[in-house]
Amino acid sequence: MKVLVINSGSSSIKYQLFEMPRSEVIARGLLEKIGEEISPFRQKSGRGEVEIKTRVPDHEAGLNLIIRSITDPETGVVASRNEIAAVGHRVVHGGEEFTGSVLITPRVMAKIRKYADLAPLHNPPNLMGIRAARKFLPGAVQTASFDTAFHTTIPDKAALYAIPHHFYHRYRIKRYGFHGTSHRYVARRLAEILKRDKTELNLITCHLGNGCSITAIEQGRSVDTSMGLTPLEGLVMGTRSGDLDPAIIFYLADKGYNPKEINNILNKQSGLLGLSGQSNDMRNLVALREGGDPRAALAIDIFCYRLRKYLGAYLAVLGRTDAIIFTGGIGENNPLIRTLTLQGLEGLGIRLDEKRNRLTRAVEGEISAPGAPIRVYIIPTNEELRIAGDAYEIASRRPGNAIGPAASKKRRRK
Ligand code: ADP
């Protein structure tokens, strides 16, 4: 079954076309700068690389271009759009309602629109992608996978903020958490690698990319995570501050900054960029630190210290931890960050094998020392594959689908 996974952002659409259940990527691509003068588009597949620079006014035109590229007689990978049986959409906010991936219906779309109140930058473009896909691929099963879904198991004691309770009832202010598809993917992958059932494992997963979050997973269920009502809370990120004393906001307001400016400062000008004054990219900061730049070194120290503090908290939350997983661009590729975060934690059962830590990049592997009580792993994240897997499962369960559960079982037995 061909499954198209779509990640529709405010001015971009990322996509991957999978052959499921083989989990094979047959094409992937990215359209950027939608709505600007020129929108660069790239697609890679077994039939080569396509690069187009054209004007794409909106998401609908964007998805049309993508589907034409996938089905192009010369460079495309499928003969007709009818071959695409399912489309899995990444949706950022599913509120408390969506605890897993779902079939998209008009009711689901209305809920996604409702939760745009909590994710104004993300849910509206996610919806645009859904509308366009329904228009151009009307025969395909459309599914939504929510960043928040994995965290709906977080108990109230970890999810509620200590503010008057009626704010939760009136406005649903609570910790929702994000990056759920990534935390779920790496946790599930480690269970496969260790040949253990996910319900036997307690894990701490660190997703460190431009956005960063850490999750405590008890017997397969998320029980706490560092991002909150929005993706601003928690760890230090590329341009986001993460945790701070909320009184700083009022202090800045007193100094004349308006709410929009403060929001922009905390989301776009803080984190690694704000601290270093130079870059939000960890690669640049590591190079600057090596060259003796004190602000880059400080930014990295603060990044790792905050991560270590959360790690300590989640070790206490879980009581027993089997493994720590690093993922995301920084988590997968940056040995220095892993060392600075975990060094000196032997007393807590964490010991890195420094040689393995230095050598393991962007591939699955263990980096803890043999015999260490808490194992440490790198697992490259693959949110798209998780979304494709969910879309495949939902499409397979649909009555009248040739690839029903019975048929897939038969195939597996071969
Ligand atoms: P996003 O959250 O946007 O998906 P990524 O997961 O790609 O972002 O992470 C981006 C971060 O990963 C950047 O800070 C970048 O410096 C870091 N990164 C990516 N590749 C490497 C690498 N080879 N070595 C060190 N850091 C890397």
From TrEMBL:
It catalyses: acetate + ATP = acetyl phosphate + ADP. Keywords: ATP-binding, Cytoplasm, Kinase, Magnesium, Metal-binding, Nucleotide-binding, Transferase. One of its GO terms (biological process) is acetate metabolic process. The keyword Metal-binding applies. Pathway: Metabolic intermediate biosynthesis; acetyl-CoA biosynthesis; acetyl-CoA from acetate: step 1/2. ATP binds at K14, H207, L208, G209, N210, G211, D281, M282, R283, G329, I330, G331, E332, N333. Its cofactor is Mg(2+); Mn(2+). PROSITE patterns: ACETATE_KINASE_1, ACETATE_KINASE_2. Mg(2+). Can also accept Mn(2+). GO terms for molecular function: acetate kinase activity; ATP binding; magnesium ion binding. Mg(2+) binds at N7, E383. The keyword Transcription regulation does not apply. SUPFAM superfamilies: Actin-like ATPase domain. The active site is at D147. Its EC number is 2.7.2.1. Gene3D superfamilies: 3.30.420.40. Catalyzes the formation of acetyl phosphate from acetate and ATP. Can also catalyze the reverse reaction. Homodimer. This is Acetate kinase.
